[in-house]
Each structure stands twice: as structure tokens, then as C-alpha cells.
From TrEMBL:
Lineage, broadest ranks: Bacteria, Pseudomonadati, Planctomycetota, Planctomycetia, Pirellulales
Key word Ribosomal protein present: no
Gene Ontology cellular component terms for the protein in this record: efflux pump complex
PANTHER family the record matches: MULTIDRUG RESISTANCE PROTEIN MDTA (PTHR30469), RAGD PROTEIN (PTHR30469:SF37)
GO molecular function: efflux transmembrane transporter activity
Coiled-coil regions, chain positions: 111-211
InterPro entries membership: Beta-barrel_RND_2 (IPR058792), MdtA-like_BSH (IPR058625), RND_pump_MFP (IPR006143)
UniProt keyword terms in alphabetical order: Coiled coil, Signal
Organism: Anatilimnocola aggregata
Protein name: Multidrug resistance protein MdtA
Gene name of the record: mdtA_2
Region (Disordered): 25-44
Domain Multidrug resistance protein MdtA-like barrel-sandwich hybrid span(s) in chain numbering: 82-284
């Protein structure tokens, strides 16, 4: 019975040796690397019931996890240029492949009706400016008239004071002469003359008061004239502002007839010829007049699978291989990532900025990106084939001093190629079964054939 079991175990061991690595993979995924030891086939000694097993000792080393994915070169900036106005293409100054500077004129669009309307708006601005000047002059005239009226009013007030004094003197004379007449000191004629003088002084005083009232009315009228002139000036100034704003708006619209380069770039598309009727672009599907790209620096787009996305971050070392350029390899670093995964492909977009002053890296080129996403220096490592998984718990099979198999739980870290980081659970003195671990059971006695570490 036991012999049949040994036979079945031997056959199973040989079969499993040919498909080593059928144990569940660690959760950290795969990348390139070499196993730490060459696995020996498990056999039985002739005439012996003890199975032979290959073992290794864990060694400390630096593990590097790498991710290799295809990518594509894109321009650092790419801008489609559309017309904002409707008109006819009058002049084209560039063609595809031309290098242009910021603000360089690429094409001109002719809109005759806009040009005539602009001239009309300029004339209205000039007219409004002349009316503003005229209004300011009217204010000066009104102020001068006000000053004249104020001077006449002051003169009338001064005359009234003089006539008031004469009236007081005439009143005093009349009182004195009336007393003298009562004493028979003067004649009736003298008294009559005094009374006439008094009446004349009183009339002159009343006339002066009337002149003052009239002068004040004129001052008020002139003051109102000044205020009217100032209000007219404000209205005309507002009219001038409206005319200027209208002209500036039309000038801004007219500037859209000049298609300019937004930055130092290369023209990669030209979809117009002279005489073409162009209209404002209404959607992204409309053909642009030009497409320009900035390619002094290029971006390499790499989509990293979900299993490796958590390891990719800014400044990860990258090696970019370009098959179409004789497998030319360029070193770089991850410049940025999208952080979130694409909802359809479940991949993370990573971008690598590459200098391209010589222009040899062209947008659209296919590349292979090799990303160094993790590095663990001085850590224990085991071959992937030496690890067992059960209920998300990793373990390995060791052979103790009595040559009996013992299962040891371990905690794994990153996976680098065919090797897996062992975070905890090992001391370094263990004899670990290197592969075909499914062929053995805990407590089984074996004969050890050690494999020296590489």
C-alpha cells in the first residue's frame, strides 16, 4: 500500500516539477527577474522509501520590481486653431512642417463689411470727441456768464448800501427841519424841499433793492446754465465712451481675422486654401484651420495595469525603448500620473516628459516603457515556486534537523520576476523546499539535496 503511495507521489512530483509555479500567486503581482536557485527534480533513492528533496537557504538581496508596458509618444502641447468669424481666407503664410514663433501670423481672413463698419465706428468716435470738446467749452462760457451776473449782483448790493445811507441822512434832515419849522425857524418851502429829498432817497433805496433781487435772479439763472452745461458734457462723454467701446469691440472682432500661433510650435495640419469660406467651429469634429504642436519636450503615455498601478508614482525611474529607432533606449522618470484608473480599461495613465531638442522623438511613435516601481534593499527573497497559499496566508515548507518537513507561515512583500520578498517569518537558517511544494506534506520525512544559492 505504502509502495503504491510512493509511486503515485513520485509521478505527481515529476508532473508538478514540469509546471512549477502552479501555486496561487502572491497578491503583489509579477514582473521580470530570475529565481534564486535552480530547482532539482524530486526523486526517490533506489530501494529507499524516503523522498529526496531540493532545498535552499534564504539569502538577503536587493529586489527590484519592474513593469514593462507599451506606450506612445505625444506632443507636449497640441492645439487645433479655428476661426471665430465668418469670412474668406485671403492669405496663408505657413504650411505643414513650418516652425513658427509665438504670435506669428499664420493666415488672414477677409471680411469687407467689418472693415467698413469699423470705419463708421471710428468716425462716430471722432464725432463724439468733438462734441465733448464743444461741451467743455460751453461749460466755460456758462461759468463766465455766472461770474458776470455775480459781479452785477455785488455791484447792486453795494449801491443799495449807499442809497440806504442817503435815505437815513434824508430822514434825519427831515426830522430836524420838521422841528425847525415847528419853531418857525424855517419856511414852508424849505420844509417841502426837505420832504421831497426824503421821498427821492426812499424811492432810490427801493429801486436798489429791486436791482439786487433782479441780479440775484440772473445769478441763479447763470448757475443753472452752468449745471446744464456740465450735465450735457457728462451725457456727451458717456456717448463718447459708448462709441469707443463699440469701436473697440469691432476692433477685437477684426483681430480674429488674423490667425496667430499660440506658442513656439510646428504646423502639423493645414486644412484651408486661399478663397475658402471659413466659419466659427461649433464642435470638436469640425476641421480646424491649422493644428500646431509643441514638441521641444514630448510626453510618453503609458497605461499601467491595475495590479501594478499602486506602485507607480511621480519620479519612478523609467527606461524608454524605441523599436523604430533601432531599440534606442532613453532614461527618464515618471513626471505625473492620473491617480485614478480608467473606468473601462482599469489602467493608470502615467506620463513621462522627455527632452526633444533635436526633434528625433516624434509624436505617434510606439515605445516600450520599463518602469522601476519598487526597490527593496537587503531583504529576504524566495522563488515564487517555494511559496504556498491557503486562505490568503502565505507559507513555505522547511526541513528541520530531523529531516522532517515543517510548514512555516510567512509575510510576503513585492514580487520581482520569479522572486518574492519575504517581509517576516524567516531567520535565514531555514532549509526551504525550492519547488514542487504541492508534492509534499507537513510531517513527511525526506532526504535533503541542497541547492547552493545564486
Amino acid at each position: 500500500m505504502f509502495a503504491r503511495y510512493r509511486c503515485r507521489s513520485f509521478v505527481s512530483a515529476v508532473a508538478l516539477a514540469t509546471c512549477a509555479g502552479c501555486t496561487p500567486p502572491p497578491t503583489s503581482g509579477l514582473s521580470h527577474g530570475e529565481p534564486s536557485a535552480t530547482l532539482a527534480a524530486t526523486t526517490t533513492t533506489s530501494g529507499s522509501s524516503v523522498m529526496r528533496v531540493a532545498t535552499i537557504k534564504p539569502v538577503r538581496k536587493t529586489l527590484v520590481r519592474r513593469v514593462e508596458q507599451p506606450g506612445e509618444i505625444h506632443a507636449f502641447e497640441q492645439t487645433p486653431l479655428y476661426s471665430k468669424v465668418t469670412g474668406f481666407v485671403s492669405t496663408i503664410h505657413v504650411d505643414i512642417g513650418d516652425r513658427v514663433k509665438t504670435g506669428q501670423l499664420l493666415a488672414e481672413i477677409s471680411i469687407p463689411e467689418y472693415e467698413q463698419e469699423l470705419k463708421q465706428k471710428q468716425a462716430l468716435v471722432a464725432q463724439a470727441a468733438a462734441e465733448t470738446t464743444q461741451a467743455q467749452a460751453s461749460i466755460k462760457v456758462a461759468k463766465s456768464s455766472l461770474q458776470s451776473a455775480q459781479a452785477l449782483a455785488a455791484e447792486a448790493e453795494a449801491g443799495q448800501e449807499r442809497l440806504e445811507a442817503e435815505f437815513q441822512r434824508a430822514t434825519s434832515e427831515l426830522e430836524r427841519f420838521t422841528a425847525l419849522f415847528a419853531e418857525k425857524a424855517i419856511t414852508q418851502k424849505t420844509l417841502d424841499e426837505t420832504q421831497a429829498t426824503h421821498r427821492a432817497a426812499n424811492a432810490a433805496r427801493s429801486e436798489a433793492k429791486a436791482r439786487i433781487i433782479s441780479a440775484q435772479a440772473v445769478v441763479a439763472e447763470k448757475q443753472a446754465g452752468v449745471e446744464q452745461a456740465q450735465a450735457d458734457a457728462l451725457a456727451i462723454a458717456s456717448k463718447e465712451d459708448v462709441a469707443k467701446a463699440d469701436e473697440q469691440r469691432l476692433r477685437a472682432v477684426h483681430e480674429y481675422t488674423r490667425i496667430l500661433a499660440p506658442y513656439n510650435s510646428i504646423v502639423t495640419e493645414r486644412n484651408i486654401d486661399a478663397g475658402h469660406l471659413v466659419q466659427p467651429g461649433k464642435s470638436a469634429s469640425d476641421k480646424p484651420l491649422f493644428v500646431v504642436v509643441q514638441a521641444d519636450t514630448v510626453r510618453v503615455f503609458v497605461d499601467v495595469p491595475e495590479a501594478d498601478a499602486g506602485f507607480v508614482s511621480k519620479d519612478c525611474e523609467a527606461s524608454i525603448r524605441i523599436p523604430s529607432a533601432g531599440n534606442r533606449t532613453i532614461a527618464g522618470k515618471v513626471t505625473r500620473t492620473a491617480w485614478l484608473l480608467h473606468p473601462t480599461t482599469r489602467t493608470l495613465r502615467a506620463e513621462i516628459d522627455m527632452p526633444n531638442e533635436d526633434g528625433t522623438l516624434r509624436p505617434g511613435m510606439y515605445v516600450i516603457a520599463d518602469l522601476k516601481v519598487a526597490e527593496r534593499p537587503d531583504t529576504y527573497a524566495l522563488p515564487r515556486t517555494a511559496i504556498l497559499w491557503k486562505d490568503q496566508q502565505a507559507s513555505c515548507l522547511t526541513v528541520n534537523a530531523d529531516n522532517v518537513i515543517v510548514r512555516i507561515p510567512i509575510v510576503t512583500g513585492i514580487r520581482a520576476g520569479e522572486e518574492v520578498e519575504i517581509v517576516s517569518g524567516l531567520t535565514g537558517d531555514e532549509r526551504i523546499i525550492a519547488g514542487n511544494v504541492a508534492a509534499y506534506r507537513e510531517g513527511q520525512s525526506v532526504e535533503v539535496v541542497s541547492i547552493p544559492p545564486k
